[in-house]
Amino acid sequence: MRVLVTRALTRRVETILREEFDAEFRTHDAPMALSEAQDALATYDAILPTLGDALRAEAFSGPIRAKLLANFGVGVNHIDVAAAKAAGLAVTNTPGAVTDATADIAMTLLLMSARRASEGERMLRRGDWTGWAPTQMLGAHVTGKRLGVIGMGRIGQAVAKRAHYGFGMQVIYASRSPKTLDFPARPAALRDLLASVDFVVLAVPATPETRHMIGAAELALMAPHAHLINVARGDVVDEAALIEALTAGRIGGAGLDVYEREPSVPPALIALENVTLLPHLGTATEEVRDAMGMMAVANLRAFRDGIPLPNPV
Ligand code: NAP
């Protein structure tokens, strides 16, 4: 079974792929362009793609040999799943493996944004710190505050639990379907949530429905001291509207792990002090990248052995 692995993976995962499959590895560690995606779909039995690979509708318009896209990652917004399925491919992903690490990054961003950690570190590194003072760099207190989670799935719930058990926060959430939760949290409509919380965490998938779910109108509903944290996908937020809101001080701050046109980050965003910017670190630990790779391998094995795929999308 010929498998194309589109990006460098951890040593453990690459070793297993080499041992068990006729695996080929792209030599440059950058997203696969559309023409490469078309070639790959015509050449390999399965592809192990990831974030940014151009598996949009046009990729599936030519000859297709592949039968499986075993995606590395839970988000599949770089794949036109409907077009893939119409062309006879199955698509799988790696849910669960990413949950805790991404929730940890959400809390990292929430705390950094609230407590002005990036701004303070920049000041110190510039040599501008003149010493402790009672009114220096006062940030927002986190313990006991209200958290709004948008998208109460795996990551949303992991964030909510951290916030509730670790920081005594009151959790409010907006989700598509009713949830049965084993910790206290109150459902609310999106607009009511935005207007009533101190921190908002976005944990929805990127879909046509969630594109620019947070734009100027939604940001205007947030309290002037409230912070927006995005660990979902960049295009869930209208980045231009966010820059305007942050520049005008209409919200307290933002913490971002994802961007609309990664890896391009607007200079206007970089110039702002009241935003914390991470380079899409959500799942970036060795253990988690191993676990994600092993889930993709499990899907490849199931496909090879003709048994049900563990993680179909
Ligand atoms: P999940 O378990 O499927 O949770 C997503 C939640 O969003 C679900 O509860 C879903 O509602 C809800 N939702 C979907 N569309 C919605 C809408 N229009 N309005 C309100 N809620 C909506 O997925 P997950 O594992 O938590 O991952 C969520 C996303 O995080 C991924 O798709 C990925 O893009 C992103 N992610 C980012 C990183 C990173 O490195 N920063 C890492 C991992 C994942 P239902 O329960 O009704 O389906």
TrEMBL record:
UniProtKB keywords: NAD, Oxidoreductase
Annotated protein name in UniProt: Lactate dehydrogenase-like 2-hydroxyacid dehydrogenase
Domain (D-isomer specific 2-hydroxyacid dehydrogenase NAD-binding): residue spans on this chain: 107-282
Single GO MF descriptor: NAD binding
Entry annotated with the keyword Oxidoreductase: yes
GO cellular component, one term: cytosol
Gene3D superfamilies: NAD(P)-binding Rossmann-like Domain
CDD domains on file: GDH
D-isomer specific 2-hydroxyacid dehydrogenase catalytic domain boundaries: 3-313
InterPro entries referenced in this protein's UniProt entry, alphabetically: D-isomer_2-hydroxyacid_DH, D-isomer_2_OHA_DH_cat_dom, D-isomer_DH_NAD-bd, NAD(P)-bd_dom_sf
Family (UniProt): Belongs to the D-isomer specific 2-hydroxyacid dehydrogenase family.
